[in-house]
């Protein structure tokens, strides 16, 4: 009896989490002129409108470029740091770990202000470069957490075997460690991309005037009222932000099982 | 160079890019805004370098800032409590159910990933004047005019709960998963009822997860300015909105620095207290 009550509660909690999102997706295929109920018929016209909207396409290009560069830089830094932390006896390990995680312990607004004002003093104004640096610094901790967790589970003796058979440390890394680590690196990259792609808190501080990412574009469009286009754009965002990590997890799992890791 | 020396240097070579990034993009900028907060923005729009206490005096003594800070902490506290009440039972059910593990993982992670801005705006479709609830009530003839449900403090809290609940569920889940199930069985076999064994065994053991989830909900909730902008009314600004206003709208950067540091001080103190009693390890588990 108590258990059923708990299950009922859980179903309600998940309805609360998913129902509003489902409504966005439902309304995005509504034929009605207005981005609201009632449903007047099924139509994909709002997605076609999206594809013809220059501002939205520009925002997508900016977000994809920003996310891709963020993912590459942040996972490179993250993988190297994780290797050092897991594979070596580093003095002051705890302090270093905490430092590397610090960007998510500081409220993002504060990080955004500090970075904006500091780089401004260095004559680096609001620009794509500032956005990129901001996104790298706050995705880095997530990459490190993901990669470290995976690295711990790679057995050290495989690397030692390679070395004892004459491989150099660089060869060992490239031919043994990196392939074993690839699923984690990949997951970390997708993670960083998704976080960057969805960020708005820091981005609104850092973006130069006239440049929009997809979330800031949506935010600007919300100032008027909810249009059917926003719901269509929302659906694309939902599919991307939920889909990419899912794909990442599935691929990481397959790669891991194939390698017997 | 000896092999040992090279071996000892290697981790630092690997760590240096990431540590440099954190130093240059976080630590030095934070130190810089401490200095900046003592400068003064003059009426010409230029900064006067020096040691002025004006910004701090304004930030700390103005009732306006204090009231909004207290209100922000109140909103974050309510959000955290609601998240705990909704999230704990859900995490318990997910942790104890025998269903497909992949599906359960999906339930835990999917709400995290779905775009924050979209989840926030999705409530306009539900609660807006032409949203789902008003449309349904109008169609049923229960109301003649749409009810204004949006743009108040309650909808801000609603949006924050929707945003932060996954953090609570995941953290509680992680700590429940780490509890040895036989402890509960042992309590039962010694005569405790299911409820007693939960209250006296499982709940205390899962408190670290609840605390980690609570900390994340509180700190992330208290640091937001997007949710009040999308779901709040004109008087529902939270403290981070003041920071945004000072920096982006008024371009008073020294004052904005002081306000940012105030927010960091309050939330940082909370993280420090948490770290002192529970350590960071639990928090990291729920984030990774």
Automatic annotation (TrEMBL), chain A:
Family, as annotated = Belongs to the binding-protein-dependent transport system permease family. CysTW subfamily.
Record PANTHER family: PUTRESCINE TRANSPORT SYSTEM PERMEASE PROTEIN POTI (PTHR43848)
Q: Which GO terms describe its biological process?
A: transmembrane transport
Per the record, its GO cellular-component terms are: plasma membrane
Q: In terms of domain of life, where is this protein from? A: Bacteria
Q: Which residues form the ABC transmembrane type-1 domain?
A: 60-248
Family matches, as Gene3D superfamilies: MetI-like (1.10.3720.10)
Look up and give the membrane topology term.
Multi-pass membrane protein
- Localization per Swiss-Prot or TrEMBL: Cell membrane
What is this protein's record name?
Answer: Inner membrane ABC transporter permease protein YdcV
Which PROSITE patterns does UniProt cross-reference here? ABC_TM1
Keyword tRNA-binding belongs to the record: no
InterPro entries the record matches: Bact_Polyamine_Transport, MetI-like, MetI-like_sf
Q: Which residues cross the membrane?
A: 12-31, 64-86, 98-122, 128-152, 173-197, 230-252
Which keywords does this chain's UniProt record carry? Cell membrane, Membrane, Transmembrane, Transmembrane helix, Transport
TrEMBL record, chain B:
CDD domains, per database record: TM_PBP2
Query: Which SUPFAM superfamilies does UniProt cross-reference here?
Result: MetI-like
Query: Which InterPro entries does this UniProt record tie to the protein?
Result: MetI-like, MetI-like_sf
Q: Where are the transmembrane segments?
A: 12-39, 75-95, 102-118, 124-143, 155-174, 210-232, 253-274
Where's it found, cell-wise? Cell membrane
What region holds the ABC transmembrane type-1 domain?
A: 69-274
Q: Does the keyword Magnesium apply?
A: no
Q: Which GO terms describe its cellular component?
A: plasma membrane
Keywords for this protein: Cell membrane, Membrane, Transmembrane, Transmembrane helix, Transport
Report whether Protein transport shows up as a keyword of the record.
no
Q: Name one GO biological process term.
A: transmembrane transport
Topology in the lipid bilayer is annotated as:
Multi-pass membrane protein
Family recorded in the similarity comment: Belongs to the binding-protein-dependent transport system permease family. CysTW subfamily.
Q: What is this protein called?
A: Spermidine/putrescine transport system permease protein PotB
Species whose genome carries this gene: Oceanibacterium hippocampi
């Amino acid at each position: 009896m108590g258990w059923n009550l708990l299950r009922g509660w859980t179903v309600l909690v998940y309805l609360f989490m998913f129902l509003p999102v489902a409504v966005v997706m439902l309304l995005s295929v509504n034929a009605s002129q207005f981005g609201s109920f009632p449903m007047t018929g099924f139509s994909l016209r709002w997605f076609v409108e999206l594809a013809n909207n220059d501002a939205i396409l520009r925002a997508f290009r900016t977000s994809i470029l920003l996310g891709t560069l963020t993912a590459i830089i942040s996972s490179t830094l993250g993988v190297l740091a994780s290797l050092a932390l897991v594979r070596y006896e580093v003095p002051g390990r705890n302090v270093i770990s905490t430092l590397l995680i610090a960007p998510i312990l500081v409220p993002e607004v504060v990080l955004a202000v500090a970075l904006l004002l500091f780089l401004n003093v260095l004559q680096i104004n609001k620009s794509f470069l500032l956005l990129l640096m901001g996104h790298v610094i706050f995705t880095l901790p997530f990459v490190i957490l993901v990669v470290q967790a995976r690295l711990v589970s790679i057995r050290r003796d495989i690397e030692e075997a390679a070395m004892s058979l004459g491989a150099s440390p660089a060869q060992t890394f490239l031919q043994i460690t990196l392939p074993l680590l690839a699923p984690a690196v990949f997951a970390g990259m997708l993670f960083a991309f998704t976080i960057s792609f969805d960020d708005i808190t820091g981005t609104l501080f850092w973006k130069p005037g006239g440049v929009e990412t997809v979330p800031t574009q949506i935010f600007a469009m919300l100032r008027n009222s909810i249009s059917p286009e926003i719901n269509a754009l929302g659906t694309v965002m939902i599919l991307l932000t939920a889909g990419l990590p899912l794909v990442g997890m599935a691929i990481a799992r397959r790669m891991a099982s194939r390698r017997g890791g | 160079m000896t092999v040992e020396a090279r071996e000892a240097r290697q981790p630092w070579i690997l760590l240096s890019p990431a540590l440099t990034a954190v130093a240059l993009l976080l630590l030095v900028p934070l130190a810089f805004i401490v200095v900046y907060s003592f400068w003064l923005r003059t009426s010409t729009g230029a900064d006067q370098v020096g040691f002025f206490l004006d910004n701090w005096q304004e930030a700390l003594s103005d009732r306006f800032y204090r009231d909004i800070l207290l209100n922000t902490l109140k909103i974050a506290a309510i959000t955290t409590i609601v998240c705990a009440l909704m999230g704990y039972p859900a995490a318990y059910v997910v942790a104890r159910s025998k269903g497909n593990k992949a599906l359960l993982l999906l339930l835990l992670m999917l709400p995290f990933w779905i775009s924050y801005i979209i989840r926030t705006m999705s409530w306009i479709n539900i609660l807006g004047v032409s949203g789902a609830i008003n449309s349904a009530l109008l169609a049923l003839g229960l109301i003649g005019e749409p009810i204004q449900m949006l743009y108040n403090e309650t909808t801000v809290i609603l949006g924050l709960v929707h945003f932060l609940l996954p953090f609570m569920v995941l953290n509680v889940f992680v700590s429940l998963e780490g509890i040895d199930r036989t402890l509960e069985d042992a309590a039962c076999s010694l005569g405790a009822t299911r409820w007693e064994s939960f209250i006296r065994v499982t709940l205390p053991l899962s408190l670290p997860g609840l605390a980690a989830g609570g900390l994340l909900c509180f700190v992330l909730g208290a640091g937001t300015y997007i949710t009040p902008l999308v779901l709040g009314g004109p008087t529902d600004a939270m403290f981070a909105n003041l920071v945004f206003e000072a920096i982006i709208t008024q371009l008073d950067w020294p004052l904005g620095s002081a306000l940012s540091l105030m927010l960091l001080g309050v939330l940082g103190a909370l993280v420090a207290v948490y770290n002192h009693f529970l350590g960071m390890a639990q928090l990291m588990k729920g984030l990774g």
